[in-house]
Design brief:
The chain has 418 residues and is of the alpha+beta class. The protein has three domains: 88 residues, Nuclear Transport Factor 2, Chain: A (Roll), CATH 3.10.450.350; 99 residues, Nuclear Transport Factor 2, Chain: A; 114 residues, Glucose Permease (Domain IIA). Helices cover 20% and strands 36% of the residues. The chain has seven helices and 22 strands. Helix 2 runs antiparallel to helix 3. The longest helix is centred in the first third of the chain and has 24 residues.
């Protein structure tokens, strides 16, 4: 009796199971949508504060004054004297001659944060510098050198009032005038013959430290045009030590046994004559000399190598100096204010050496130099005398010199045409 219900129940349960599992197996499954994205809120972020730079050592400069030595200059800037002595000792140990420290030289001092000096820099020239550095309580000097940058440049101008003014108007150092005059000092008397309208041009070695001009080096070639007369001076290094000199374009030496003038720059106030009205004694008297007007103290040069035969007071000539030279020549220099140190009877002098200074001693109405030249005991006009020239370029170097001369002159003419 009970078997039918149980069968019925089993069928019901089996159909239910079939129905349930059949749905799971065959139904298309639709995936659930993803959860909505969460957008983070914008947060304003400021830039981080800059990191402050650490304090730097302080650098101060001190200018050397007249009468200063290195230690005194450092002490004036606040360096302890004991430290200054140590710095000076380090420089001396490095071979520095501190006696050459000059007014207007500059010292740079570096200080640490405690106000103590840790380095000193000293540059005696644009090419040479020293740094004295403190290391573990001791001072050590270090040397540095800069090689000059040499550039060859043309310089040209025209004389209006004076050669000095013409060169100064070009912005050139006045030493350039001295160097130019020196080249032609045996050929041309710049004190007597310079004229307005004279023209000059030259190629000069100019020395630079970086882009800063420092000074001029040698003149390589120079030309001076005066009254249709063209002087040419070519610098040439002979094949021997110290053989640099100036020659004309054919190789003839421009250095003669006598200079044209014992003064570098002045003017002639009285020439060589046998009948000049005497400004003090009156009447016509011979004036067998050349008078050069110049301020008291102007240096007087020996016009040639020689021996001093007389030096001192000589009546109306005032303080006077007489030299004996080769080939029977003698020269006299009168009305000096004083003699140069070491110039006395019997001493030897060299050409261009300063032997005295212009004055107005003796019978003189004003400061000037009375300059006389005698040959074989007879006075001659020094402006007309033809003195012995120096040695020319030797035959075995003549070809090389002529090539060198033509090249320099051609470049000068191209870069600075008259």
């Amino acid at each position: 009796m009970l078997r039918r219900p149980l069968l019925t129940l089993g069928l019901v349960v089996g159909l239910g199971a079939l129905t349930t599992f059949g749905v799971v197996r065959w139904r298309q499954v639709v995936p659930a949508p993803p959860p909505p994205a969460v957008v983070p809120a914008l947060v304003a972020v400021s830039d981080p504060a800059p990191t402050p730079e650490p304090p730097k050592p302080r650098v101060s400069a001190v200018e050397v004054r007249r009468g200063d030595n290195l230690v005194r200059a450092l002490v004036r800037e606040g360096v302890d004297q004991r430290v200054g002595n140590d710095i000076a000792a380090a420089l001396r140990q490095r071979g520095v001659n501190l006696r050459k420290l000059k007014p207007h030289h500059m010292l740079a001092i570096t200080w640490n944060l405690n106000g103590e000096p840790i380095a000193v820099q000293y540059e005696p020239s644009p090419w040479l510098g020293y740094a004295v550095v403190s290391t573990d309580g001791t001072w050590e000097a270090r040397r540095s050198e800069t090689r000059p940058d040499v550039r060859v440049e043309a310089v040209s101008g025209e004389v209006s009032r004076s050669l000095f003014e013409a060169v100064e108007n070009l912005g050139e150092p006045l030493q350039l005038v001295v160097d130019l005059v020196e080249i032609f000092s045996s050929e041309f008397d710049f004190t007597a013959d310079t004229r307005a309208g004279d023209r000059f041009r030259l190629l000069v070695e100019k020395r630079y430290a970086g882009d800063q001009f420092v000074d001029n080096g040698r003149i390589l070639v120079a030309q001076y045009l005066s009254d249709a007369r063209l002087l040419t001076g070519v610098g040439y290094e002979r094949g021997r030590p110290g053989g640099f000199g100036y020659y004309d374009s054919t190789g003839r030496s421009l250095k003669k046994s006598f200079l044209k003038s014992p003064l570098e720059f002045t003017r002639i106030t009285s020439g060589f004559t046998y009948a000049r009205p005497h400004p003090i004694l009156g009447g016509l008297r011979p004036h067998l000399a050349i008078d050069y007007a110049a301020p008291v103290g102007t240096p007087v040069r020996a016009v040639a190598n020689g021996v001093v035969t007389r030096a001192g007071w000589d009546g109306g000539n005032g303080i006077s100096l007489q030299l004996r030279h080769t080939q029977g020549y003698e020269t006299m220099y009168n009305h000096l204010s004083r003699l140069a140190a070491g110039v006395r009877g019997g001493s030897r002098v060299t050409q261009r050496q300063v032997i005295g200074y212009v004055g107005a001693t003796g019978l003189a109405t004003g400061p000037h130099l009375d300059y006389r030249v005698a040959r074989a005991g007879r006075f001659v006009n020094p402006l007309q005398e033809r003195f012995i020239p120096g040695d020319p370029i030797p035959a075995d170097e003549r070809g090389a010199f002529l090539d060198h001369s033509r090249s320099l002159v051609r470049r000068l003419e191209d870069e600075a045409p008259f």
